[in-house]
Design brief:
Number of strands: 0
Shape: globular
Helix content: over 70%
Order of helices and strands: HHHHHHHHH
Oligomer: single chain
Amino acid sequence: RSTLMRSSAASDVYKRQYEQDGVENMFDSSMRIYKLLQLLSERELHNQKEDTSIEKTIRYIRSHVGDKITLEELADIANLSTYYFSHRFKEETGLSPIDYVINTRLDQAKILLARTSMTVEEIAYEVGYQSSNSLINLFNQKLGFSPREYRKLAK
């Protein structure tokens, strides 16, 4: 349900931007296709009859990207101890669970920066951070530039 609400909100943002500009540039088209493929991929994961515990947590992370997510919570969803869950998650994804959450939030922030006129503070809150400083620091650390610089590059 929350995924539907988020995709509906994203759709509304897209409609508003398209109505304002009347033209979609190549980057916007690519982002829209990427988001569509991401939604189809999530739906395919969801439709599998027998989800692994790691797939369940990945789906949970993606659909709750703006919420506080703890390692203990993810381990509970997987019905595993935190130690064993962390080990299995890294084995299957190549990332620790917390790094996966951070990367998912960063990816969502990049999409919002490129596709919306939301402020950095609004985007930070939307992807699960309590302050824009946290998001700015993450961008600088992981990408080497600020969210504002990323927005300029993406346009």
